[in-house]
Amino acid sequence: MIDYYAHVAVLEQLRAQVPVAGGGAGPAELAQLQEFADAAAAEEGAALVGLFTDHVLTHASADGTEADLLERAGDLWKTGKDLYEGIGEVRQVVEKALQTPDEPDAADSFNQAMARMVVLLRKAKKLSAGVRQLRKDLRPLKHLPPHPRQAGLPLSDWGYGDVFLARRQDAFTRTVCSRAGGDTTARALAFGVLASYAGNVTGSAYLGQGVGGPRRSHRFRNRLARNAVGSWCARQYTVAKPRELADKLRPLVPASDDATPSAVAQVLAQALSETYDPALTPPLPDIDLGLRRTLRQLELYDVIRRPPLPRPVVASIAVRVHTTAGGGLPETYDDQGFEYPHSDQGAAPGTVDEVSGADTTGQAGDNGGGCPWWAYTIIGTVVFLMCLGISCIVGLVASGSCKEGVSDFFDGLSGDDEPEQPTSVTGDALVAVAASPAGPQIAQRLFEVHTGLWQAADEAFNYLALVGLVPPDDLLLTSPLHRQFLSLPVRELYPLREEPAAEKTYAFDPVTAHENPPTRPSPYPTGADPSVFVEGAAPEQALNLLLQILRGEQRSENLDADADRGYRHRCWTTDPYGSVHDDPVPVQVLAYHET
């Protein structure tokens, strides 16, 4: 299953290729194809519902773990953003006061800014507590549960999203398209469903070749690949931002207290009921719940974004920072032997330590020297630097020495103790401080606090992308961790069996034996990027199927939308007494009418 961005890229490419559709389409057929494409352009929300049907059904039948974790991450991110922006505003006020200390309101502005620092420190302590708990809850990667096929569950116990991807999507697509008639909204929905199916069949094969196996057996690695490919598509094809997608989708999503199923949910439910055998599948989930979760996920993707870099200290002050011969800057260690945090406290993105950090095993506690690196950088950078910054500035104002202010430093770090308000300065004192070496060092200290907050947000974003909760941004796409999925490797044997400790090793190519019988992951050439399916295979498949539907032809098969056993493999199951863990896997291809 491909992600939102890749789906949208496929839809746009499909619309662009309709006017030059192959398959020997005549003028009348081309006109009918264009009507579907035009409907998708006119009713973008309905087209997105059809396009995201796989995600909607997956969310609808999920236990809500991922939705809850993402919601909590979004709340923490908003708090962190407020904190980061607050420090930026404090810096602006303080620097202005230091530049023009003789202004009538300069001292009051400076004092108010320092009082706000204490308020922001309280917010930082609460943020750190929430981050610690989120980290604990993310470690088991419970938001990526085992695939029911891999767990050996009967189809009736699968989540409906997994059923949808593994069974009868050709038949479902035909049902939705055939029922569209002349209604613009229905046609837009159908065109989205068509693009989704073609994108999944061809895009999942691309993911499988990059990952080494299907989502079923490599769920952690598949999520990394899916998100990386989607983010690449977002950049390559200028896909609408998450907030824009959410805005287009929102009018069709009912409120949680609306008991009447939405119009699009009713259309999808009717088509699903006509396509799948209810005696073999789980009950239909609440499609509107899935729509709400999909909408919320897109909204939170827009919230959780790496902040811009802090602006430098203003030039007139920055010059003096470098000419004040130390000017009270602390040494590497303070008088009590406490080491200041450095930028190398955390592992670089994509290393073994990062992947191990996602596991529940082998982790030290949150207290003492064994604090996990991500939690350490959040707590150590946010709270430590803010406490140190306030204490240092107090010393600089009082005596021109940072060290004079850190005697009560550990009191500021401890528990729920309220940090003391910095002593107010008078107008004359501010003039004296601004003219002394302490003035530029105050601005420099605030810049370091601001930078520390950015580093904390940077590492937090990297971690959330590492565990697959959010897609990588353009900066992360350049890392080896995500870049590995944007150029296909040689894959002679496929699919590879699951790793025994995948939660620790999923950043790396599997080293397990392959499943028998082996199959071909895809026809895509080694080194191909995702455009090979977005621009080529997916639109071609979609147009061929839609032409068959318009002509009343039945020459297609139900293809596994997860490309579970390679490119364009038909939907399958194991024999009644077999398992995917058998060698060879007892693959039993399903007839077209079979669920």
Describe the model.
The longest helix has 35 residues, at 65-99. This protein has helices spanning 4-17, 27-42, 44-51, 53-61, 65-99, 106-138, 160-166, 169-179, 184-211, 219-236, 242-249, 263-275, 287-303, 315-321, 352-356, 373-399, 409-413, 427-435, 438-466, 474-477, 480-483, 502-505, 531-551; strands at 572-574, 587-589. The protein has 23 helices and two strands. The chain has 595 residues and is mainly alpha-helical. Mean pLDDT is 87; it is low at 325-354 and 359-377.
Comma- or semicolon-separated keywords:
23 helices; 595 residues; elongated; mainly alpha; two-stranded antiparallel sheet
Overall shape: elongated
Please report the distance between the alpha carbons of the first and last residues: 19 Å
- Strand percentage lies at under 5%
Strands of the biggest beta sheet: in what spatial order? 1-2
Radius of gyration: 28 Å
Please trace the helix and strand order, writing H or E for each element: HHHHHHHHHHHHHHHHHHHHHHHEE
Q: How many strand elements?
A: 2
Contiguous helical run count = 23
Query: Which structural class do you get from the secondary structure elements?
Result: mainly alpha
Spans where pLDDT lies below 50 across 5 or more residues: 325-354, 359-377
Helix content: 55-70%
Mean pLDDT: 87
Q: The biggest beta sheet, please? A: 2 strands, antiparallel
